[in-house]
Amino acid sequence: MTNKTIDPITRYQHHVVHYLRTAPWHNDLPVRDDHFTVLPLASGEYNLNYLLRGTTTNLVFRVNMGTQINRDDQILYEFNTLKLLKNSRVTPVPFFADDTREFIDRGILIMEYLPGRHLDYRKDLKNAARVFATIHQIIPPDKNHLIRETRSLSLILVECQQLVEKYISSELANPNICRLLEKIIAQAEKKKGEEQYYIENPWLTIVNTEVNSGNFIVNRTAGTTHLIDWEMARQGDPSSDLCHFISPLTTLWKTDYRFTPGDSTLFFNEYKKYITSEKLRESLYERVRIKAPFVLLRGISWSAMAWVGYQGQYSGIRNKDTWQTLQRYLDEDFIRSLFSSFLDS
Question: Where would I find the Aminoglycoside phosphotransferase domain in this sequence (predicted)?
Answer without folding.
Answer: 38-246
